[in-house]
Write a structure and sequence with these properties.
Blueprint lengths: L3 H13 L2 H22 L4 H34 L2 H6 L5 H30 L4 H28 L3 H26 L5 H15 L11 H9 L11 H9 L1 H27 L3
Helix pairs in contact: 1-5, 2-3, 2-5, 3-5, 3-6, 3-7, 5-6, 5-11, 6-7, 6-9, 6-11, 7-8, 10-11
Length: 273
């Protein structure tokens, strides 16, 4: 189902657009800023640089990946590249799966570059760094497929990029929002709002439970494994409790990647060219 030629075509486009070179330069600049901020810290400069650099580079990586994916897909539609590729012996489902595979490869490369850079910035816990890097790769892969979905559904590259980054921000903040609503004043408005957010959280990846910078400083066990709220997203609670950290990261990545691909396929199959 996955066309190796099409995957190679997308990866070649990423090299042609100098995505990796640009991200490498930005990652190097971000690492330099993190080291500078750590040296200016009065206490625990290494830990400060590690946490500051990891958080900043994570956001930088997902932003660069999402922008490339969204603008590449919309440019392919505008230049009639999609119609040309579909005129070849390739199905629409294979087209989607090949692009998702290519974006996942890019996500892994970006996550690997950021993980190696974080290892150079400070002295992270080795196990925590490994789990953090794997979590970052899964997170970036989900966002790459989300960018594919939104760029298929929306006709604007900027709009699809904003929608994807909005989903990323919601996935990062949903745990904190649910925690605040759980302690909100007892009245009808907050009760309805809390119920709506709990419903929305079912369809949002719990990215706040992945890629935690505390793993880099204290290790996975020292940070208390995965932090989660008992009342927030029952599926995430169940996976974290029964599958462990690795199972939670892997299964959540598979579930949301599959859901986004299914939604993109539903829209793409119905589209007339």
């Amino acid at each position: 189902m996955i066309s190796k030629s099409l995957v190679k075509y997308v990866l070649t486009a990423a090299l042609r657009d100098k995505l990796m070179i640009t991200l490498a330069l930005m990652i190097a600049m971000g690492a330099a800023v993190a080291v500078f901020m750590g040296s200016a810290s009065v206490t625990e400069g290494d830990s400060f640089a590690l946490v500051f650099g990891a958080g900043g580079l994570r956001f930088l990586g997902v932003t660069g990946l999402v922008l490339f994916c969204c603008f590449y897909i919309r440019r392919s539609f505008e230049n009639k590249e999609v119609e040309f590729l579909l005129s070849r012996p390739i199905s629409r489902l294979s087209f989607l799966l090949s692009h998702a595979a290519a974006f996942s490869v890019l996500a892994f490369c970006v996550a690997l570059a950021i993980t190696l850079t974080v290892a150079v910035i400070g002295r992270p816990d080795l196990t925590g760094l490994t789990v953090w890097g794997a979590s970052l790769a899964a997170e970036f892969a989900v966002m790459g497929v989300a960018a594919l979905f939104f760029s298929m559904v929306l006709s604007s590259a900027a709009g699809s990029a904003l929608a994807t980054l909005g989903l990323y921000a919601l996935g990062r903040m949903v745990g904190a929002v649910l925690g605040l609503l759980d302690r909100a004043p007892e009245n009808g408005f907050f009760a309805v709002l809390g119920s709506m957010m709990k419903l929305i959280s079912i369809g949002v990846p719990r990215l706040d439970m992945m890629g935690q910078t505390t793993w880099l400083v204290y290790g996975v066990a020292g940070a208390g494994n995965v932090k989660f709220l008992p009342d927030a997203s029952a599926y995430a609670h169940w996976m974290a409790e029964h599958l462990g950290l690795a199972g939670f990261i892997g299964l959540q990545g598979i579930i949301f990647t599959a859901l986004l691909l299914a939604a993109a396929a539903h829209d793409f199959m119905r589209r007339q060219f």
